[in-house]
Each structure stands twice: as structure tokens, then as C-alpha cells.
Design goal:
Layout: E1 3-7, E2 20-21, H1 26-40, E3 44-53, E4 61-69, E5 92-94, E6 100-104, E7 119-121, H2 124-134, E8 137-146, H3 152-170
């Protein structure tokens, strides 16, 4: 199987030289992963990165299998729910109920959010949607770098290296 490993930033993957870095946010992730898909034609995309825990007690590396767009807010239009995109029939991507739910948005979470999800990031929903539309298998692993609270910025900076080391152990699953 032709696997493509992607992460937003080099800072999240120190020592993991096989990663392609796609940038922060849903637009950068979408644009850059589509370029990589066209170049490498992968059968599977594996995303690794940092995430903030919304659900209490989450730590280490977790696998996300449900994806939501937490900052799409068109609730005033056509009686939509938070996360629903107007006139789009893909508003959530649920690959399995065994993993964790991830809400992606183009903002760094430091306060309580309205969506009922386990963790937050800035790219996974976009990657999951591209993979769904392109019929590419997608797996997503997130290192819980912070608790999406007022200390999130400091925790994130300190925890990227720890997460990369833990992810190296996950690689045995892909060999």
C-alpha cells in the first residue's frame, strides 16, 4: 500500500523525516494534500499532529475516527446546526465509532466550545473530507498536547517533541 504521512508543521514531527508538511488550517491542509495526492497517488493518508483535549482524561496519542468542522456556523441560515455547511451533504465524517471525535477549525481553542467532541485540531476534518471524496483510506493520530484551555499555548510548545517520540512507536502498526 502506498502510504503518505502528513502533518501540519515540522515542529510537530521532529525526527520524523518521512512526513510531508501541509500547513496550518483547513485551507492549507486541503490545498497541499491535494497537491501531494496528485504527485504520489497514495492509497492511504496517515495524519499525525497535536490536538487539544476537550474530553477530560485524554492523554498521549489517540486515533480519531469521527470528524467535524467546528467553526462552520451558518445556524441562522436554513435552520442548520453548528458544523453544517450550507448546501453540502457531507457535514460529518464517521469512519468508525471505536475512536475519538475531532472538531477541526481555523482557530486555536483556549476556551469552552459549543460542540460535543473529544478533541480539537485545525486540519483533520479537511483531510478526512478530501480522502472521502478521493476514495483514499484515512487514519488520523493526535497527540494530546494541551487541554484546550488558558494554558494551551505553553503546553503545545513543550509537548510537540514528546508526541513525535510516541508516534515513532505507532509506526510499527504500518510496517
Amino acid at each position: 500500500m502506498n502510504k503518505l504521512f502528513v502533518a501540519a508543521l515540522k515542529e510537530e514531527t521532529p525526527g520524523l523525516d518521512y512526513f510531508h508538511h501541509i500547513g496550518v488550517g483547513k485551507i492549507n491542509a486541503t490545498y497541499n494534500v491535494l497537491k501531494l495526492i496528485n504527485k504520489f497517488k497514495p492509497d492511504q493518508i496517515i495524519n499525525y499532529g497535536s490536538a487539544g483535549a476537550i474530553k477530560k482524561g485524554l492523554s498521549g496519542i489517540v486515533e480519531c475516527t469521527s470528524f467535524y468542522q467546528r467553526d462552520m456556523d451558518a445556524r441562522g441560515l436554513l435552520d442548520l446546526k453548528l458544523g453544517q455547511t450550507p448546501f453540502d451533504n457531507i457535514n460529518e465524517i464517521i469512519m468508525s465509532n471505536k475512536g475519538f471525535s475531532c472538531g477541526s477549525g481555523d482557530n486555536f481553542v483556549k476556551n469552552k466550545i459549543e460542540m460535543d467532541i473529544d478533541l480539537v485540531d485545525m486540519e483533520a476534518y479537511a483531510l478526512a473530507k478530501v480522502c472521502k471524496l478521493e476514495n483514499i483510506k484515512f487514519r488520523c493520530f493526535k497527540y494530546i498536547s494541551d487541554n484546550a484551555d488558558e494554558k494551551a499555548t505553553n503546553d503545545w510548545i513543550e509537548n510537540c517533541k514528546k508526541g513525535a517520540k510516541l508516534f515513532q512507536n505507532k509506526l510499527k502498526e504500518f510496517e
